[in-house]
């Protein structure tokens, strides 16, 4: 991976810019540039055919000054220590910008889970926890689902942890199914939070909420809940969705001029977020190249798949109609593309603010686990909206106060809070 597209180099570059704007001391800057702790693990897993395959995995605890490390676990063939470091750094800024009493962490296993059987996936999930369990706990480090992991994977991981420790410990992992201590509203929380930030941005720009149009990349956990909330809560139309096709090993964009029918598309989408091409064509959807979502004539562009999709090259292809870029995915925009978007006046909602709804409800889940008392969905949604709106306002105030763009505004709010905690602990 080139240094230009290395997500951790990008995360460090973003921090460097914030540190310069804030006038951080070099020792504070250095502390925040690197993870506090990282684990590299080997996972021998018995496959269904009797052979043993060794997988490689990571867990990074980036900064824990404000509370236990918090962050998801990815199962992805392209995972590297640097993607996990970057995501752990962004989790640190994400929990801080939302003012949650948590630090930042992330985990990853280098694997393609799709060809694995359910039994192989279960053994891999359990093997990962066996290797890192002594570094986990509700008051140490709390994982959650991310790309290609889900509530079932969290259930196996919780069970392995509780089997090893010999006690119930629901708060060690979030994104669990309801019968194991999950929270109402967790499944769609990231998407609802994204739509709350889009709503606030539309208000800020004096634009109509009803009838706003969007084009989305990704129809997995985040993409689908964003699309559903964009249509049902905001009253907007989603005209384009791009997703990966496993059979063809390439991405496609599915579109409908008057807006896609999310409920229908969900019936023809597999658990990994791949839409059935033939069924979509039969239902009258237009099929285009995977990048076509980027060129759509819409108000809001929502990358909700992987990092580095909006680069110096692709930013120029974004339609002039686009007023808002809502970064649902982590790290979708490179710094060079950021500069182009700023010049064009696109209102960027930075990733660690935009997609913080998931970790916010994960935090609510931990609170409910600690109390053993559970809230209804309306309460979860109301508290999520309050938290996301407050974070949006805090970032806006920093943008005004420092005269910076939204990403730097979010960094300034988050880094200030982490620095304060580090300082109180005597780390700086
Ligand atoms: P997922 O695996 O459930 O879905 C990924 C989607 O992206 C799938 O629809 C897949 O087909 C699509 N995709 C993959 N490669 C593509 C390509 N080249 N072109 C078009 N589409 C492509 O993952 P997810 O959990 O929805 O996560 C998506 C992003 O959101 C990641 O950056 C993740 O870190 C971030 N995120 C996830 C959560 C969460 O709660 N799951 C929370 C915050 C942020």
What integer value in Å does the Rg equal?
21 Å
User: How would the global form be characterised?
Assistant: globular
Spatial ordering of strands, largest sheet? 9-8-7-6-10-11-12
Unreliable runs:
none
CATH class of the largest domain: Alpha Beta
The CATH topology name of the largest domain reads Rossmann fold
Structural class: alpha/beta
Give the averaged pLDDT, no decimals.
Answer: 96
Number of helices: 15
Count of individual beta strands: 12
Largest β-sheet summary: 7 strands, mixed
Helix residue percentage: 40-55%
Percent of residues in β-strands: 15-25%
Description:
It is globular and about 55 Å long. Strand 3 (69-75), helix 3 (81-97) and strand 4 (104-109) form a beta-alpha-beta unit. Helix 4 (118-132) packs across helix 5 (151-165). The chain has helices at 7-22, 26-33, 81-97, 118-132, 151-165, 189-204, 221-232, 262-267, 277-282, 312-315, 335-344, 351-354, 357-371, 377-402, 406-424; strands spanning 37-46, 52-63, 69-75, 104-109, 141-145, 213-217, 237-245, 250-255, 286-289, 300-303, 324-326, 347-349. The chain has 2 domains: 37-170, Rossmann fold (3-Layer(aba) Sandwich), CATH 3.40.50; 189-354, Rossmann fold (3-Layer(aba) Sandwich). It is 44% helix and 17% strand. The site of nicotinamide-adenine-dinucleotide has 28 residues, from helix 7 and strand 7.
